[in-house]
Design brief:
By secondary structure, the protein is an alpha+beta fold. It has helices at about 5, 30-45, 75-85, 160-170; strands spanning about 15-25, 50, 65-75, 95, 105-110, 130-135, 175. It has 4 helices and 7 strands.
C-alpha cells in the first residue's frame, strides 16, 4: 500500500525564496554611502535604504545615527532573477559554510564588475557587496505575525541539507567541498 506522500508531494513542504537582501556596509559615513546607494540602485533597479550606525566608534569617527551602509530587499520573481544574475560572479559555486542551520545562505562579491552587464564607473569606484537569501515554506508566517504568534514545529523547519538541495535543484548552485 502506498501512502499519500509517496504518490504526490505535500505542497506545505515545498521550499521557496522568501527574500534576497543585498547589503553594502562601509566603515565611514559621507560620500561613500552615496556611491554605495547609486551602486545598489543600479544593480537591483529598486530604491535602497540607508542603514544607520547603532553605536559610536571614535576610531572610525562614527556617532550613533550616521548612515554607514545601504541595503535592498528583493521579493518574488525579481529576487530569483537577481540571484541568478549575481551568482554568475561566483561561478554558481558556493561552499557548505555559506549555508546556516536555519535554511538560509549568503555570499559576498568582492567587486561589482564581476556581475554580468556591469561596467566600471569612476564615480562609484570599486565596491563589493553581500547577498543573503532567506528560504521559507508555506506556513512560516505564524512565527512573524502579531496576533497568536507561534513557534514552528521541528518537522516544518528548513535544515541545512534541505537548503542545499533546494539551492542545487532550483537555483543551479554547485557545492564545493
Amino acid at each position: 500500500m502506498t501512502s499519500k506522500n509517496d504518490t504526490q508531494e505535500n505542497p506545505m513542504r515545498k521550499i521557496r525564496i522568501s527574500k534576497v537582501t543585498l547589503s553594502i556596509a562601509l566603515k565611514e559615513s559621507g560620500e561613500n554611502v552615496e556611491k554605495a546607494y547609486t551602486l545598489a540602485e543600479r544593480l537591483t533597479g529598486l530604491k535602497p535604504v540607508r542603514t544607520l550606525a547603532t553605536r559610536k566608534a571614535r576610531t572610525f569617527r562614527l556617532r550613533r545615527g550616521l548612515p554607514i551602509g545601504v541595503k535592498v530587499t528583493l521579493r518574488n520573481k525579481k529576487s530569483m532573477e537577481f540571484l541568478k544574475n549575481v551568482l554568475v560572479a561566483k561561478e554558481n559555486k558556493l561552499t557548505m559554510n555559506n549555508f546556516d542551520n536555519e535554511g538560509n545562505f549568503g555570499f559576498g562579491v568582492s567587486e561589482y564588475l564581476d556581475v554580468p552587464g556591469q561596467k566600471y564607473d569612476p564615480k562609484i569606484g570599486m565596491l563589493g557587496f553581500n547577498v543573503n537569501v532567506s528560504l521559507e515554506r508555506p506556513g512560516f508566517r505564524i512565527k512573524r505575525r502579531k496576533i497568536q504568534k507561534r513557534k514552528l514545529s521541528i518537522n516544518h523547519r528548513i535544515l541545512k541539507n534541505d537548503a542545499i538541495d533546494f539551492a542545487t535543484k532550483e537555483v543551479g548552485i554547485k557545492i564545493k567541498k
